[in-house]
Specification:
It contains 22 helices and no strands. By secondary structure, the protein is mostly helical.
């Protein structure tokens, strides 16, 4: 065992012990279903802000997106991080946080499907939403496993990837099942602090690399690399020094829209607003969360944009997914200080992944235990039974996502490409219009949800028949953005021509006291 492996194992053990301790401490606050799912609607600004930010960014962002886009786009990729912070975080908090908190409290809704049922008086919409969450979010969690497992395998080449994925699954299951949302929220705070420290350290390390030359020399060296390889890069349409991505401008815009506006309809993100305790906490949380996203998002893509300089323009054997792991080993693999920083970075990426994984699993489990099963059975389920079932389903979903990630089941792998866009594309219209407009009808909301699903489904079918499924998967970001736009348009248009709710229902939803 070398020093890097030893320090990483020590850091991992300390981290695991801390997560388990938080889970045990949080158990007393998660004995009721309301406490387990939304922390009794009494979570403070710092905890909620970090929970939102850490759920937003997983190891997939660092290992996948930052490596791929930094390698292929260069400094222009940093706009994705800026877009995520401003559009996906700041604007989301300003527009939706307080309205979501007030309306879900008024309706006593603890989940997104339950919000749809009570806002639109539709059990069918609740079932459909729960099914969509189950089908598409569990595969998304499998992608989180794979991204982190491959990274740990870089540091521990003799250990199979599935071993690391199993460790991640066990750690997540322990504190999630024991402590519920409260445990995940407070672990997110710890994980968020680790992520900030790790990103700052990694930025300093990559900028200090001889090939990068510091912040001042970075652009100059990148421009020199672009000039020296102009023919090869021009053939691929790559301009590493263009602030707007050069010929990748359209691709850049699509990814900014998908990863930024997509958060507006994702239940694991919106659920953070259910739990925050008051309006004052929202004001503070908005600033804290936005700063967190700026540091993590921009930092990740800045690191990715230095990859060609650090690696001498040689794409690693594992392709773009291996870019960031290889950069880490190149920058931090030597010297005691570098190895200690490497251990911190590994825990950073573990934290990023586990925070996303726990949010997705809790959302999926509650969708089935609270929304789907009681509605299908058509019988009232005791709170104690729902509580037990939710805990058990958290275990089941952690296990399922682990199995999916290790087996490379074709249909599951395929669903990963579409998960973010499909879920947000289905929910964004009914969710947002339901918060702001009294004129939205049940059929209008239903139509928006189905239209978002069909936009992706029909487009995927057409492209697959003409060019194969791989071509359709490559277009999944564009499909996701289109689905969100269609859902936002269809909901109010259909509502214009369909039966409105009676005034009593509208008054119950909108005429709430300030709280």
């Amino acid at each position: 065992m070398n020093d890097a492996q030893l320090y990483t194992i020590i850091a991992l053990c300390i981290y695991a012990a801390a997560m388990a301790l938080i889970g045990c401490i949080s158990y007393g606050k998660s004995k009721t279903l309301d406490g387990f799912l939304i922390g009794g609607r009494n979570i403070g600004a710092w905890v909620t802000a970090f929970a939102y930010g850490t759920t937003y960014f997983s190891a997939v962002v660092f290992v996948g997106y930052a490596g791929q886009h930094g390698w292929n786009i260069g400094i222009g990729s940093i706009w994705i991080g800026i877009g995520n912070a401003v559009l996906g975080c700041l604007l989301s908090w300003i527009l939706f946080a307080n309205r979501t908190r007030k309306m879900t409290k008024q309706l006593q809704a603890k989940t997104m499907p339950e919000y749809f049922q009570k806002r639109y008086d539709s059990k069918g919409m609740k079932i459909l939403a729960a099914v969509i969450i189950f089908i598409f979010l569990v595969p998304y969690s499998a992608a989180v496993y794979k991204g982190l497992g491959s990274l740990f395998s870089t540091v521990f080449p003799g250990v199979e990837t599935w071993v690391w994925m199993l460790i991640i699954a066990c750690l997540t299951a322990v504190y999630l099942v024991v402590g519920g949302y409260v445990a995940t929220a407070y672990t997110d705070l710890v994980q968020g602090i680790i992520m900030i420290v790790g990103v700052v350290c990694l930025i300093a390390a990559v900028l200090g690399h001889d090939n990068v030359g510091g912040l001042g020399g970075f652009i100059e060296n990148l421009r020199a690399y672009q000039d020296a390889n102009s023919v090869e890069l021009a053939e691929k349409g790559i301009d590493l020094t263009s602030i707007f991505g050069g010929s990748s401008f359209k691709f850049l815009c699509v990814n900014i829209m998908l990863t930024s506006f997509g958060t507006w309809g994702l239940p694991q993100m919106i659920g953070k607003f259910y739990a925050i305790k008051d309006k004052a906490a929202i004001k503070r949380g908005t600033i804290i969360s936005t700063l967190f996203c700026l540091i993590i998002g921009c930092g990740a893509y800045l690191i990715g944009s230095t990859s060609r300089l650090i690696l001498g323009g040689q794409l690693p054997e594992g392709g773009v997914d291996a870019v960031i792991p290889t950069v880490l080993m190149e920058v931090l693999g030597n010297g005691t200080l570098g190895i200690i920083l490497l251990a911190i970075i590994m825990i950073l990426l573990l934290s990023a992944s586990m925070s996303t994984l726990e949010a997705v699993v809790l959302t999926s489990a509650s969708a089935v235990a609270v929304d789907l099963i009681p509605t299908v059975r058509k019988k009232e389920t005791k709170p104690e039974t729902q509580m037990l079932l939710t805990r058990l389903l958290c275990l089941v979903f952690v296990a399922c996502s682990f199995i999916f990630a290790t087996q490379n089941i074709p249909i599951i792998v395929s669903l990963m490409s579409f998960s973010w866009g499909v879920v947000s594309g289905c929910f964004i219209g009914p969710y947002i219009w339901g918060l702001f407009s009294k004129k939205i009808t049940k059929i209008g909301a239903y139509s928006g949800m189905i239209a978002g699903l069909l936009t992706v489904g029909i487009t995927t079918l057409v492209i697959t028949l003409n060019s194969g499924f791989s071509a359709a998967a490559a277009k999944s970001p564009e499909m996701g953005v289109a689905a969100m736009a269609v859902s936002m348009i269809v909901v109010p248009v259909v509502s214009l021509f369909t039966k409105k709710f009676d005034q009593e229902h509208i008054n119950h939803i909108f005429e709430t006291k300030e709280n």
